[in-house]
């Protein structure tokens, strides 16, 4: 039974991180240190490992995608760019502090493609993110 589970659910699936500001960059680094293959995208390119060309490319490589963008417009643009590649196998976690209407609109875009959307606001600092100690408030 254990072998079947490990084949269908790898111990370290690819994780996508969109938004490489203070928190997104720290989260990506922490996940890498814990052995996860992390692929990243940012509106302004960064010289970091596994930087991909677009949100759609990232969705093609990762089933779990975390979004750390700075505002409503960035969130909506990002999920629009992701949406073409989203399928029911995807889980999109939005960590941005945005207006409730923008979060609902983002959820609708993602869910229209059959993917799951989770709103997961957080509290904590860069150090907490680096140590894996952020506190999340999850809904969705």
Structure description:
- With 140 residues, the chain is α/β, with parallel strands linked by helices.
- It has one domain: 3-Layer(aba) Sandwich (Rossmann fold).
- Helix content is 41%, strand content 21%.
- The chain is built from 6 helices and 6 strands.
- It has helices at 2-8, 22-33, 55-61, 72-83, 100-112, 126-131; strands at residues 15-18, 38-41, 64-67, 91-94, 116-123, 135-139.
- Strands 2-1-3-4-5-6 form a 6-stranded mixed β-sheet, sandwiched between helices.
- Strand 4 (91-94), helix 5 and strand 5 form a beta-alpha-beta unit.
- The longest helix is centred in the last third of the chain and has 13 residues, at 100-112.
- It is globular and about 35 Å long.
- The termini are far apart.
- Mean pLDDT is 91; it is low at 1-9.
How would you concisely characterize the structure shown here?
This protein has 140 residues and is α/β, with parallel strands linked by helices. The chain has a single domain (2-139), classed as NAD(P)-binding Rossmann-like Domain (Rossmann fold, 3-Layer(aba) Sandwich).
């Amino acid at each position: 039974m254990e072998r079947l589970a490990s084949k269908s659910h790898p111990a370290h699936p690819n994780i996508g991180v969109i938004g490489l500001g203070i928190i997104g960059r720290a989260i990506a680094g922490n996940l890498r240190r814990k052995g996860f293959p992390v692929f990243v995208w940012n509106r302004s390119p960064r010289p970091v490992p596994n930087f991909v060309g677009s949100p759609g490319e990232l969705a093609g490589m990762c089933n779990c995608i975390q979004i750390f963008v700075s505002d409503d417009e960035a969130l909506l643009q990002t999920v629009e760019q992701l949406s073409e590649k989203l399928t029911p196998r995807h889980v999109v976690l939005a960590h941005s502090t945005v207006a409730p209407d923008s979060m609902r609109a983002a959820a609708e875009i993602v869910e229209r493609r059959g993917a799951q959307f989770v709103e997961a606001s957080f509290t904590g600092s860069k150090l907490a993110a680096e140590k894996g100690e952020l506190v999340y408030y999850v809904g969705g």
